[in-house]
Amino acid sequence: MHPFWRSLLDFFYPPRCQICYKFSPEPFCAQCRDKITLINPPVCARCGAPLDPLAKGPDLCSDCLPLSRFPITWARAAGIYQGPLQRAIVGMKFAGRRSLAVPLADLLVESMKNGLYSGHAAFDFACPVPLHPQRLQERGFNQSELIARYFCEKTGLDLDTTPLERTRPTLPQVLLPPEQRLKNVRGAFDLSPDADVQGKQVLLIDDLYTTGSTLKECARVLRRGGAAEVYVLTLARPRPPWMTPDRREE
Ligand SMILES: [Zn+2]
Ligand SMILES: [Zn+2]
To answer: Which domains does the chain carry?
Structure first.
């Protein structure tokens, strides 16, 4: 948009924070931004769960320690799913506010600078977790694809939305207890007929890493198709038990 029209528009409709709706030139105002808990090292080498910096122990969290196999090379999340970050993700996903995808993708780009992502090869492309066509029709957009798209625009990484397909609809993972989530998504994804993932370093992008069931299933399918490594990047993950809740919201 031409700067003149932009300033005229800003005069009549001053920009507001996308989370709290207070006037703010930035999409996330300083107060909301300040209440977003970004994840910093140390984190679990596999799933990216923040590790208690005061506890001396292995570099894996208690969930990953007993697992002999983990189809994801590493997963990392930008922040803790609480406060303004949670409100932004919920607003995008369930209230259909697509405009939130831009500042959320910015947050993901920013999180790549905090030392969580060392020791990986260059990614060949990023791909989002697909939605089942039925869900896509209901929601009107795939939030993972939107985030991946803006993330790739910012980083110059190639975006490939085609390698994975949903083969059947699944129940929303949030409605299920953790032990049923793996079963819910087992066999729910497949490689698309023209997927080219052989020997590729794939970066999977999604909004949330909760139990990781969906992302692990996608990684399994990509690896079965010959992907060399599958990395995962999400906007948020739940607060680990050792971390004190942020009460500034309450
Ligand atoms: Zn705000
Ligand atoms: Zn872990």
So the answer is: 1-34 (no CATH), 35-55+72-240 (3.40.50.2020)
